[in-house]
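To: structure desk
From: M.T.
Subject: fold request, one chain
Message: Could you run this one when you get a chance? Sequence is below, nothing fancy, just the single chain.
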Amino acid sequence: MNTELYKYYIIERGHHSFRKDCGKSLAEEYSSQGLSVDERMCRRFEEMCREETPHIHPAEKIVLVRTVKKLPDILTPKEWEKIRSSHYIHELGYVSNLCPDYEKAISGGLLKLRESADTFGKRVIDAITGLCDRYRAEAEKQNRTDIAEILSRVPRYGARTFREALQMFRILHFALWLEGDYHNTVGRFDQYMYPYFRRDMENGTLNEETALELIEDFFISFNKDSDLYPGVQQGDNGQSLVLGGTLADGSDGFNKLSELCLTASRELRLIDPKINLRVSSETPLEVYVKGTELTKAGLGFPQYSNDDVVIKGLTDLGYDEKDAVNYVVAACWEFIIPGVGNDICNIDGVNFPAVTDRAIRRALSEKPVTENSDTLLGYIKSELETEIIRLTESKKNIWFYPSPFMDLLRDGKKYNNFGLHGSGIAPAADALAAVEKYVYNDKTVTPERLLAALDTNYENDPELLHLLRYEAPKMGTDDDRADRLGTYLLNVFADCLKGRKNSSGGIWRAGTGTAMYYIWHAEKTGATADGRRAGEHYGTNYSPGLFTVTKGPVSVINSFTKQDLSRTINGGPLTLEFVSGLFRNEESVEKVATLIKYFIDRGGHQLQLNAVNPEALRDAQKHPERYRQLVVRVWGWSAYFVELDKEYQDHVLARQEYTV
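Reply: Done. Structure tokens follow.
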């Protein structure tokens, strides 16, 4: 590890001292000149490149660091009001959660792209190459001939060496953020970078040690500016890197570069880049062991995606097989296609406990109440269909800022699909299972009693609260009564979206992820029939409810792999929390690796694991200054625990902890 560079950028954050405000207010100026939005985006990019001040640390090999803190707005409040009056604005209005075709730009260079670019494309290429020329001049001034030589080649021309390729990526990635695009993912890094790596290893330019040093320098570069990137919390920045996975010829893509990336991440223990491993039933146990060694470091990654399920799910939805085989992971877990994708994979989310609660109230309010749960299940379908119509109809006439630099790195916008998250699937299934058992089958709880308890947040019926909370069937305990209803909910979700077109001409994708909805949805949802009280949070993603008493990780995996998860392929992992002390020796690491393989072999689609020390987390809440580098997995990303809002900290502490 480059300890000098790590200390400067990560521990001391010395580069913050030369950050500056832009000092420009562009919106009113551009508006008064009557500039188009395309012209404004291009012109701001040019101005921001000029505003940046080159800074090179003596120990670094991969350069470019943000010096301007915030991009100025280019639209006035009045202009925004007019746009919003007739358009749906997704998040901040910039393109996000996309994966460019880095390979094409790295191999050919920006001048090659410039040949077929439009006027705006040519201008943004000229702007970023101009900034790189100023970095080259600074390198020459500092007698850093190594950097100056590399910048005389890239970004204008294609990379020839591994280091040139890494520097080229940094320039491209830097430019995307400077344009305003965010959650820019890294894609299949070990595939498009492998030719450069292999060539340098074979000709002796690099050996394993020097290659690892370069990769670690490169990984540090992801953390220089990440606090400036937009996200719900620090760490939610979308810098997601994919390793391994099926190749076009059917072989497995895990290689020596993949292995060194895992090593670099384990040694650095940084929140970026987030590591994702593509695996399948053919993946050998040794790859899972290498992944588990990284989990042991406590970073909350790698996240695993199952090619057997994902590729089938994507092709079933209409993705070309060659594109499906090349899938990558978006900011958190959603599956996207590099280079040709324009999907909005997180456009909204379904609140399953709220939908289920409405159906339960309808069914139990009938006089007389039906003898079995068939009517209730029919109401579930009706309520979910109504909710799907409400959500999909509200997402029309979508407006985005133009993105001339991102468009340079894409070969069109082939896929324009929208993804819906599904929050609280397990609590919703648990509520249905409780009603089916106690109201319909056993008849030990009357409809009137349950409805009264829900209306009063269980204040007057602690006995029923305990029964539903701790003794009723639950997903995560390998109980077919609850698992069957979880399967029903997912199938109805997929059925409701099947054949439905979005306003961009694409399809809708169902998913098992939650993003922040496990808090946002839960806080506005009243008491539910699984024994959850009003406002209590759901489990994150596709996971058990927070007060489910499980029998261990095997029972959880069994519950959450009985479904055909290829039908809900927008993504959303099963999340397991392990006590960090579990990873005490090679035998325990291999046990966890075997468990991951078991999940994949059973048809699980995604899995993420967290190694937590509850005592350390509680102490960190009291003494944050002692735990600046303590990392946890939040939902689809990892963050420094002490930088999270307390509600997110408390949720991490409330999750299940497993041993094997």
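Reply (cont.): The domain at 3-333 is CATH 3.20.70.20 (Anaerobic Ribonucleotide-triphosphate Reductase Large Chain). Let me know if you need anything else for the meeting.
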